[in-house]
């Protein structure tokens, strides 16, 4: 689409978006599909939504999303959280959903369910999570936005937290997404341009327990949805461009009541001990293609071996200098890839630190 067409479409659309809805609510039901992608569809609710209970269960054709066989294709959507909709405004909402099967079991890709079970069992620990979501913006042809066609930009160096033409790409999308998250009451805590040009980061958190996964998934939905309006593609691939270009991660900051209290270093050291025994289990749910990113270069650790250290960006887990000096706070698991499922990442963290629960 040419820019003039986009502009005139926007003017036309605005006329309709401003129409009175006569008391109805447009609810966008959002869920995760069979490949870690995001899907959504819209439902009319005939009065403003004040409580989760005001949102009915719904369903979709799971055979079209890789989530169910054709001969038993109904998958059910169960609302678990809702947020103000920054696109439609007013009483309209975005609804995060779990996926369930007709036999009463969670869908095979419903990773939220198990995570919620283990977190509920250990809620006395008061887990907080803050995740750093890195991603890359691509042009319609799949090459990073703003990169020379059939070529590469100048080597990495000026782009991280960069300012100025040629140093950053698509700041408009990033600004729009930041505002949209705030409007949606997602606890976005910041954003920055990354080391590779057209790569960005934002952080969500600290959030309590399962809320981190709900909010991060909804923030990913918003990012895709907004980039769509600007004609860019979002990729969460952990190593979008091979070679001397940084990969993308989902650094996972973790604390509990015990780590935040004076003397919390002791609880963090105990957590390191437990984490060191489950390297392979964690890597199994820390995203696909993560071995391409975790080469030990570009601020990553070894894929095979668990390490931790203070202020060490080459370790699996880093405890920042301020926390080490205060003797309490949180730690940062740097292993998860940008495409990891935050429900799985936060779920296994609680499981490893506090013990498995049969769900
Ligand atoms: P980095 O220095 O690794 O780039 P960022 O500033 O990008 O760190 O992200 C830090 C993240 O840690 C934020 O999402 C923030 O919400 C989160 N965070 C801060 N304090 C805590 C805490 N006590 N428990 C869990 N997460 C926390
Ligand atoms: Mn239909
Ligand atoms: Mn960061
Ligand atoms: Mn980063
Ligand atoms: Mn980090």
Automatic annotation (TrEMBL):
Its EC number(s): 6.3.1.2
Classification via Gene3D superfamilies: Glutamine synthetase, N-terminal domain (3.10.20.70), Glutamine synthetase/guanido kinase, catalytic domain (3.30.590.10)
Query: Which GO CC annotations does the UniProt entry carry?
Result: cytoplasm
Q: Which reaction does it catalyse?
A: L-glutamate + NH4(+) + ATP = L-glutamine + ADP + phosphate + H(+)
Q: Does the keyword Ligase apply?
A: yes
**Top-level lineage group:** Eukaryota
**Which keywords belong to this entry?**
ATP-binding, Ligase, Nucleotide-binding
Q: Which SMART domains match?
A: Gln-synt_C
Write out the GO biological process terms: glutamine biosynthetic process
A UniProt-annotated Pfam family: Gln-synt_N
Q: Which PROSITE patterns match?
A: GLNA_1, GLNA_ATP, GS_BETA_GRASP, GS_CATALYTIC
Q: Which PANTHER family match?
A: GLUTAMINE SYNTHETASE, GLUTAMINE SYNTHETASE 2 CYTOPLASMIC
Q: Give the family this protein belongs to, as stated in its UniProt record.
A: Belongs to the glutamine synthetase family.
Q: Name it.
A: Glutamine synthetase
The source organism is Tothia fuscella
């Amino acid at each position: 689409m040419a820019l003039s067409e986009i502009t005139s479409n926007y003017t036309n659309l605005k006329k309709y978006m401003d129409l009175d809805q006569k008391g109805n609510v447009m609810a966008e039901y959002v869920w995760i599909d069979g490949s870690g992608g995001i899907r959504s569809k819209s439902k009319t609710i005939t009065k403003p939504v004040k409580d989760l209970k005001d949102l009915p269960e719904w369903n979709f054709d799971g055979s079209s999303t890789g989530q169910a066989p054709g001969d038993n294709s109904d998958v059910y959507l169960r609302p678990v959280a809702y947020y103000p909709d920054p696109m439609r405004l007013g009483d309209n909402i975005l609804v995060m959903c779990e996926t369930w099967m007709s036999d009463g079991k969670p869908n095979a890709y419903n990773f939220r369910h198990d995570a919620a079970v283990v977190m509920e069992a250990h809620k006395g620990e008061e887990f907080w999570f803050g995740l750093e979501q890195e991603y890359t913006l691509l042009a319609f042809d799949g090459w990073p936005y703003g990169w020379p066609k059939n070529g590469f930009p100048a080597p990495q160096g000026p782009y991280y937290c960069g300012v100025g033409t040629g140093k950053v790409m698509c700041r408009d999308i990033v600004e729009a997404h930041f505002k949209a998250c705030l409007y949606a009451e997602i606890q976005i805590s910041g954003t920055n341009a990354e080391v590779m040009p057209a790569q960005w980061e934002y952080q969500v958190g600290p959030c309590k327990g399962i809320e981190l996964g709900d909010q991060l998934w909804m923030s990913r939905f918003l990012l895709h949805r907004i980039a769509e309006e600007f004609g860019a593609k979002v990729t969460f691939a952990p190593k979008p461009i091979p070679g001397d270009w940084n990969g993308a991660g989902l650094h996972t900051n973790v604390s509990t009541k015990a780590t935040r209290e004076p003397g919390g270093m002791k609880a963090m050291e105990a957590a390191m001990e437990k984490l060191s025994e489950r390297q392979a289990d964690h890597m199994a749910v820390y995203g696909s293609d993560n071995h391409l990113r975790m080469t030990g270069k570009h601020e990553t650790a070894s894929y095979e071996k668990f390490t931790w250290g203070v202020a060490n960006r080459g370790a699996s887990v880093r405890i920042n200098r301020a926390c080490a000096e205060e003797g309490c706070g949180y730690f940062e698991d740097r292993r998860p890839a940008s495409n990891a499922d935050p429900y799985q990442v936060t779920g296994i963290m609680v499981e490893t630190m506090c013990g498995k629960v049969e769900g």
